[in-house]
Structures are given as structure tokens and as C-alpha cells.
Write a structure and sequence with these properties.
It is a single chain. With 448 residues, the protein is of the alpha/beta class. It is globular and about 75 Å long. Helices cover 47% and strands 8% of the residues. The protein has three domains: 129 residues, P-loop containing nucleotide triphosphate hydrolases (Rossmann fold, 3-Layer(aba) Sandwich); 73 residues, Helicase, Ruva Protein, domain 3 (Orthogonal Bundle); 192 residues, Methane Monooxygenase Hydroxylase, Chain G, domain 1. The protein contains 14 helices and nine strands. Pfam families: AAA, AAA_lid_3, Peptidase_M41.
Length: 448
Amino acid sequence: MLLGPPGTGKTLLAKATAGEANVPFITVSGSEFLEMFVGVGPSRVRDLFSMARKHAPCILFIDEIDAVGRKRGGRSFGGHSEQENTLNQLLVEMDGFNTTTNVVVLAATNRVDILDKALLRPGRFDRQIFVPAPDIKGRASIFKVHLKPLKTNLDKIDLARKMAALTPGFTGADIANVCNEAALIAARDLNDAINMKHFEQAIERVVAGMEKKTNVLSPEEKKTVAYHEAGHAVAGWFLQHADPLLKVSIIPRGKGLGYAQYLPKDQYLYTKEQLFDRMCMTLGGRVSEEIFFGRITTGAQDDLKKVTQSAYAQVVHYGMNEKVGNVSFDMPRDGEMMLEKPYSESTAQLIDIEVRKLIDTAYKRTQGLLNDKKEDVAKIAERLLKQEIISRDDMIELLGKRPFPEKSTYEEFVEGTGSFEEDTSLPEGLKEWNKEKGKDQPQPTQAT
């Protein structure tokens, strides 16, 4: 079972496995089993596994298995009952395989939390492999692959490393999208080769959306957006644990009227102080509006949403509040509603109080910081109004060097991690296994 967020290469990994093993690859989507007619789903499962046995040795891959492998129970009528019957047949077929069958069953999902436990027990999908978003070395390796067919005068190894540093949190699919967008932008500009400017524009397009040249703001709105983004930039500049700033823009993109691009490092553990600094930086836009205009606008809605989520996570999920204590309650996923709270009403009230207190404390701290740096905010805002985009070099020119050490290059990010390249070496027992692999490889088979 391949687990992980969308776009990390679960399906690609399954296809690559079949290619390396030099065996037929049978692929099917979990949703293809489900039909409105009773009995069709289980019948398709039987046919699929029969095909796999016929073509053995082979690899059978079920993509998006959560469509058919959802937990049983609850409602038991209509389509839900048919889904359970299909799952039951899948469980039976999985039990029918043994070590002599020579069929490997792979499956992929990004929702392992909703899968039936019987599907994951030993003997079925007992080997679960998490496929995360790549780290900076992984991103550099993926960029090298996607840069190969592109025409550019830049050194592709250096370019891959630089792009890896500029794209924290990107998945393999995002990286492929960036390279494709860069080629399209270069073609629109009638360039013979892709340069660094095209790649930077492609990253902006993937991160923040398309540039809206027709979205003309009134002078008053443009000034508000400039001071809002300047508030973010200055707050982050003088907070130790805020992410290093890369670029600030007041050109409307996607849903936003402006945005700030940061360069966070690949980090897996966060302290209370680091999360608090990030909250303060996120509140910088709303605080700046209040200081300079004496009023607030709807422009901070997304910032407030992020701050609220962070505060709730610290209090409810990470046990970072003294009064609520060292407890961790499940939080609903994006787009889900929590029908029943896993804590009492009195605890719910305490959580609300502590979340508000944490956000208020962050807001007051940001107010104090931006009041002290009021002239700096005005400098940044006026430069933004003049040229619409300012870079890190402009920030250094206007505010001086950031008073905290920061990393910005690939070499600085990977320092102390052993090597500059990703370790892709094989165990001793696997180094020679496919040396004599046949040249003729069978074509993948699509289940119908």
C-alpha cells in the first residue's frame, strides 16, 4: 500500500516497479469497481484477479483504493451496500493469493484514515510505504529529470539545485508543472531558450495563481494592499523564527490582491516560539492596516484563517497550552465537519478562551513591533507602490541586513546532511539483480 499526499508519485512508483521487474502491469482505478447495478462490482473484482493470475508473474495496481476500500458500517442501503459487497470480494481475492501465485498487488491512496482495517491486516496490504513530498535533495533530483528535455543556456545541475531551494513543500507533480509553465512562458515571450526569469515566473504562477492584468485596483485599494504586504514583510524581517523573505508583490494573482513569497526550510519539528513568530508575521498585514489607516478591511481573511488554525493546533493538537494540558485531540481534515467533539463542553469553552488569548497575545506583540518599525513599513509600502514588486535585495537596501542568520542557497540548506546529492544506493543484495534483464519489456495492460 502506497500512502501519501497527492502528487508525490505513488502511481509513478508502481509503474516504475513493474518496469524494473520486467513483468506485465495491470492497472485499475478503485472507482471503476463501483456501479449502480448490484453485483457488478464484485464481478469486476473477480475478473481482475482472474486476469492477474492468467498473466502471472505480474503486478496488479489498484489506484485510489479508498473509493472501494472505505470502512464498512453505518448506512447499509443502495450504493453503500454495493460498495461493501465489492470490498468483501476484494478481501476474499486477497486471501486467495499465496507465495506461489507470483502476483504482487499494489494499491495507492491519500486517505488511509478511512480504509477498512481488514484491508490492512497482515496477509493483505500489510506492507505500507509512505511516499512523502520530497526534501530539497529529492526536489533537485526530480528537477534534473524534468529539465533534461528543456532548452536552456543555464547549467542544468546548478539550475536544479537553485530551483530546489526555491520550491519548499513542492511535490513531484508541482515540479513537473513548474517546468512545463516555464517552457510555456518562454514560448509566449518568443525566447529560443528558457532563462531564470521564466522559472521564477512559473513558480509564482504555481504558488499564487495567474497574474490578473485586467484586475485594476483603485488607488486607495492599491495603497491598502501595499501597506498590508509591507506589514507582513517588516514583521517577518524582524522576527527570528519567521521564514526568510524572497519577494513581495502587489500584483493581483489568483484569489489574492498581493502576496509575499518566503523561503522556509525543510523542517519537521517546530517549537512553541517558532509557531508564535509565524502567527505574528501572518498578523502583520491586519495590524499594518489598523496602524496606518485606523480601519481594517476584508483583505486579512485568509491570514486570520491561518492564524486560527495554528492557534487551535497548538492548544488542541500539540499540547502546547498549560491550562488545557498535555493532551491531543483529533482535528477535522480540510472540508470535513466534526459532528462530535472528543472532549467535554467545559473543555471546549476553555479551548476557545485559550485560543483567543493566544491570538490576542500575538496581535499585541505584532502591534508593538510594527509601531516601533512604522517608518520601515512606510518605506517598503512606498517602494511597492512605485515598482509593484520588491525583492530581498530591495529589503536589505531599505532596512539593512536581516538581524538573524538565514539560509537561501541549496548548499546552505544541505550543509551537514552528509552529501550534496540524494542517496539512491541499493543494498548489497540488490546491486546486480537486474543486470541480465531482458531487453524486450511487455507493454502495460489496462484493465477493462
